[in-house]
Give the backbone structure.
Amino acid sequence: MIFTETKLKGAFIVDIKGFQDDRGLFSRVYCQREFEEHGLNAKVVNTNVSRSVYKGTLRGMHFQRQPMAECKLVRCTNGALYDVIIDLRPGSPTYKEWIGVELNEDNYRMLFVPEGFAHGFQTLVDQTEATYQVSQFYAPDHEGGVRWNDPTFGIEWPLEPTVMSDKDKNWPDFANVEPTLVTPAV
């Protein structure tokens, strides 16, 4: 695997090194040892799948509060999506900054999301599926989020959202979220 750190410290784009022959492609998409060598939390307690029927579906911006803050490794296994993360770590030099990365079934690219980040994505085509590994068990009492179009962040989504859950539409603006509940200061 090829690990490229983004401008948000601790967040990595992970590309595969594939072996191709007449049969097709083979590649490793996760190796605990390689993640640990890059100083990343390699613990995986769940692998989740999300399937979105329609292009423009927006899911996010989610996080888990301490002590259940989680890391995620996100990959698009069918279709294409625009994956977005926001650094919500007080004291971080990139506090309140975001990045977006296209993940799709052809580029095999993954995004490693550290603790203390909000995460969400928008589908770019119909029938898009994402798989993500997480480092903590889901804890509903520690779930949080910020509004997908909060002007604090100025996220530039590629499409106008077509489908969103009521919960995702109604996350509060960041000004109404206690940042120390997300993760300790860096």
Notes: The radius of gyration is 16 Å. Residues 15 and 109 are 5 Å apart (CA to CA). The helical segments are 32-37, 166-169.
